[in-house]
Amino acid sequence: MELGLAKTRLNHMTEASCIFCKIVSGDIAADKIAETANTLAFRDIAPLSKVHLLVIPKKHYKDVVELSESSPAVLGELMSQATKLAQEHTNGSFKLQFNTGSEAGQTIFHAHAHVLSDNSKDGS
Ligand code: AMP
Ligand code: ZN
To answer: What predicted TM-score, i.e. pTM, was given to this entire model?
Structure first.
């Protein structure tokens, strides 16, 4: 029981093999665009649309379900930041997406919101 609790706590801090944890720690470079106390935003390395941003919690949660159940306040902060950045980078038309589970296309098991749009603010 105690071991299980300790493991859960460890999961929520960092995972040694997690790419997004390494971006948070600075061990891997990323095109960072903004941060808040508990979130970090950067450009997707393989953009699927003109605007493709990722917003992640700084702590490790495997997906949005775990984030929502463990830290709803951080999820709220992440949603506020994602919609703020979407307003700043697009003309107001955008998609906000959480791929959850491998069958839904999740490839990195550190919760993240995709901000996707072909309607960039400056029209470029
Ligand atoms: P998902 O498929 O929802 O798990 O999304 C993971 C996203 O992370 C993909 O769109 C990848 O292109 C993106 N990605 C993977 N590695 C990096 C990286 N080092 N920096 C920025 N984005 C990345
Ligand atoms: Zn992680």
So the answer is: 0.91
Rounded distance from Cα 100 to ligand 2 centre (Å)? 15
Q: What's the CA angle centered on 5, arms 72 and 107, to 5 degrees?
A: 60
Contact 78, 104 (CB under 8 A): no
Q: Please state, in angstroms and as integers, the Cα–Cα distance from residue 110 to each residue in 88, 91, 98, 118, following that order.
A: 25, 28, 11, 25
pLDDT in tens, 65-80: 999 999 999 999 999 9
Q: What is the pLDDT of residues 80-111, one digit of tens each?
A: 999 999 999 999 999 999 999 999 999 999 99
Q: Which domains are present in the chain?
A: 2-117 (3.30.428.10)
Output 34-41 pairs: Cβ under 8 A, ≥24 positions apart. Answer: 34/81, 34/85, 36/77, 36/81, 37/77, 38/74, 38/77, 38/78, 39/74, 39/77, 39/78, 39/81, 41/81, 41/82, 41/85
- Ligand 1 centroid to residue 19 C-alpha, Å: 9
Active site residue 52: no
